[in-house]
Amino acid sequence: MSASKRRYSASDVALAQFERAVAHMDLDPDLVAYLREPRRELIVHFPVYLDNGHMRMFTGYRVHHSTVRGPTKGGIRYHPDVNLDEVRALAMWMTWKNALMNLPYGGAKGGVAVDPRQLSRNELRRLTRRFASEISLLISPEGDIPAPDVGTNPQVMAWIMDTYSVARGYATPAVVTGKPLSIGGSEGRTEATGIGVTITAMAMMNKFGMKPENTRVAVQGFGNVGSVAARKMWEEGCKVVAVSDVNGGIYNENGLNISNLLEHVARTGTVVDYPDADPISNRETLTAPCDVLIPAALEGQIDDTVAPDIQARIIAEGANGPCTLEGEQILLERGVEFVPDILCNAGGVLVSYFEWVQSLQSFFWSEDEILARLRRLMIEAFEQVWDASRQQEIDMRTAAYTIAIQRVVDAIEARGIYP
């Protein structure tokens, strides 16, 4: 573990990014202090019976960072390393992401400290339903709407929706997004985050005159976000030279056939041992010769030990918080351009918003309509951040934060402080 990872938690990073942005803004110090703190935090400890008949205790979290712009919105992740500090940081990032995309939401996040791969389907169902019942005092279509995140999927959302609906006595599809289509999910939701990463990465490439056919791409993380981003970048004509997942990575300087790779992953469950590539480590994926790097795994992957060796000109953050403070500073000093996470991976929450609206109205749009709306709003947000960055002579992340924070401040000032 690097020194940067030991010194800084996810919350430290989120707060440091916030402080860097407000330093460029003329804000009331009292409002700055208000925005530093989450609105509420819930920790639950709950039992689940395993298939072997033994009971095991689990710990889960749900954090609301801000509620001033509307109901809170944010995913639920299942991962062994989930903890309150991480969830608190992710909730703050969701506040800024939702505000940057000008959605009528505050920010939330939740999770359970568990490795879902170690549970059977029945164990996962029992855990999800019990966790849903534990956080049901916070979630609702009008108050807090969860969505999938790392380690969760549409099936998990379906179980949460059903648990909440049974307690209410009627179907309440708007309580979650990322649901299966059969119970009110939205067309385009599964691929939305990866598509948004591609849209913004291509927009940044266009600013520097980078042609797809001459652009090499590396993708760390080949889950829902990374695999979609890799495929879309490949379909746009880019040469995807390196990808990795939790088991390892692969590299081909001439470019990978992503369609064939996806078939390999469907058969084997991993990118490892793909025949038309050389094996590499996760670190080597980040430092591979490329022009665009898409970190699409967990936070804190690019630290001060990795950043000096990164060769990419553009980093499009598919993951939340993939850079440590030191890692980002090294890259900024080298002139690397970022498409920051609260912009780059906002496609998921955009289509989640579309799904929520559709669930509330019981009226649905086609996939073409969804993707057209997604592209328009992603490009509009990118151009706003780009213009702010160049006009104020600040980096893209700081520019994105200043826009988002100002929108939250405007809402606070309009509503006032109760009582």
What labels describe this entry?
419 residues; alpha/beta; Rossmann fold; 2 domains; seven-stranded mixed β-sheet; five-stranded mixed β-sheet; 15 helices; 12 strands; disordered N terminus
What would you say this structure looks like, in words?
With 419 residues, the chain is of the alpha/beta class. It has two domains: 3-175, Leucine Dehydrogenase, chain A, domain 1 (Rossmann fold, 3-Layer(aba) Sandwich); 192-339, Rossmann fold, CATH 3.40.50.720. It is 45% helix and 17% strand. A seven-stranded mixed sheet has the order 9-8-7-6-10-11-12. Strands 1-2-4-3-5 form a five-stranded mixed sheet, with helices on both faces. A hairpin with a 2-residue loop joins β7 (239-245) and β8.
In short:
The protein has 15 helices and twelve strands. The chain is α/β, with parallel strands linked by helices and 419 residues long.
- What can be said about the biggest beta sheet? 7 strands, mixed
Subunit arrangement of the protein: single chain
Q: What name is given to the CATH topology of the largest domain?
A: Rossmann fold
Helix percent band = 40-55%
Provide the residue-averaged pLDDT.
96
H/E element string?
Answer: HHHEEEHEHEHHEHEEHEHEEHEHHHH
Query: What is the number of helices?
Result: 15
Strand content: 15-25%
* Principal-axes shape call: globular
CATH class of the largest domain: Alpha Beta
Q: Provide the spatial order of strands within the biggest beta sheet.
A: 9-8-7-6-10-11-12
Secondary-structure class:
alpha/beta
Question: What is the CATH superfamily of the largest domain?
Answer: Leucine Dehydrogenase, chain A, domain 1
Rg for CA atoms: 21 Å
Tally of discrete structural domains: 2
Contiguous runs where pLDDT drops below 50 for at least 5 residues: 1-6
Q: How many beta-strand runs? A: 12
Query: N-to-C terminal Cα separation, in Å?
Result: 47 Å
> Which CATH-level-2 architecture of the largest domain?
3-Layer(aba) Sandwich
